[in-house]
Design a protein that fits this description.
Layout: H1 2-14, H2 28-34, E1 44-47, H3 55-61, E2 65-69, H4 73-83, E3 90-93, E4 108-114, H5 123-136, E5 137-148, E6 155-156, E7 159-160, H6 166-173, E8 177-188, E9 194-204
Parallel strand pairs: 1-2, 1-4, 2-3, 4-5
Antiparallel strand pairs: 5-9, 6-7, 8-9
Bound molecules: S-adenosylmethionine.
Residues 4, 8, 22, 48-49, 51, 53, 69-72, 75, 96-98, 114-116, 119, 157 line the site of S-adenosylmethionine.
Length: 205
């Protein structure tokens, strides 16, 4: 964890938000996905790798309670500074999401992962991640995964990535989750390069 955390801290220390390769000035793609979920506004949303995403501001404006995790203390500090007094409905966590969450971790109605899972490469890390999904997401709750697709880039942020199909996401989540919707989406990064993602929304039975 220490190496990974340092890697991400260096990135967040060295670049402004708009210089980050995954920076989205407009988070409508994710908002449109979660608008497919009925009554999401008063619910608790868990972000396993929040980064400094503007999705946080949008969800706060909707009245959502948030659990914001990231492996990078720098990302969380920058986000905390930006959110300021608007953070009273936020629980902050700093941990490697491939490792078990603390006993008694807050349970959530919606898990939203954009560009976090695909950095986990070993079976152990990936299993750990999906174990946390099962710990956190309530029955009837939802999981939105947005990862590099099978036609996507091989690397991001100086790291290799594991690219996903919807079938692999479904298999990794297991029988307790039903696929509701999926879409290929090409994100154009701040340097103007296309980055193909797959978005998939699941519901826990
Ligand atoms: C590509 S960025 C995406 C950030 C945010 N989700 C967004 O869409 O802007 C990946 C984020 O995941 C975090 N991260 C990477 N590996 C992680 C891990 N094992 N556990 C928790 N967070 C991790 C990084 O620090 C970074 O904030």
């Amino acid at each position: 964890m220490a190496d990974q955390a340092e890697h991400w801290n260096r990135i967040f220390t060295g670049k402004a938000d708009k210089e980050l390769g995954w920076y989205e000035g407009d988070v409508r793609q994710t908002l449109a996905c979660i608008d497919r979920i009925p009554c999401e506004r008063s619910q608790t949303v868990f972000l396993p790798g929040a980064g400094t995403s503007l999705l946080v501001d949008e969800l706060l404006a909707r009245g959502t309670r948030l659990v914001l995790n990231d492996i990078s203390s720098e990302a969380l500090a920058r986000l905390q500074e930006r959110i300021g007094a608007r953070g009273d409905r936020i629980e902050w966590l700093q941990q490697d999401i491939s490792q078990p969450l603390p006993i008694g971790a807050t349970r959530a109605d919606i898990w939203i992962d954009r560009a976090v899972l695909h950095f986990l490469l070993t079976e152990q890390e990936i299993d750990g991640y999906f174990g946390n999904v099962r710990t956190v997401v309530k029955r009837g709750g939802h999981v939105l995964l947005a990862e590099f697709s099978e036609t996507g880039a091989l690397r991001c942020a100086g790291l290799d990535v594991h690219r996903y199909s919807v079938d692999e996401m479904r298999a990794r989540l297991g029988r307790g989750f039903e696929l509701l919707w999926a879409e290929d989406y090409v994100f154009i990064n701040p340097a103007g390069a296309p980055r193909p993602y797959v978005y998939a929304l699941f519901q826990r039975n």
